[in-house]
Amino acid sequence: MQKALDRECDVLELKCIGLFNGPVVVVVHPGPNSPVVYSKLRTKRQRSLIVGLATGDVGARKQLSGRKVDKKKAVASVERQLKRRVA
Known about the structure:
By secondary structure, the chain is mainly α.
């Protein structure tokens, strides 16, 4: 999955954000808005949807809505880590 994402966007590996129910946690950073975090992406289909999301597929966002992480603490941790990495 990382090779496919590398072709479409920037991939950063972040430190743990307190989500232990993954094997994969993906963060989509849509510009000035806060990042969108997805967790529990276990199937090939879900991983291909992430690649679709990175390429701008609107349908992928709808299909992944159940995997979106709403924990404010986790999202805030991702925001801080992204600011440190990008700056």
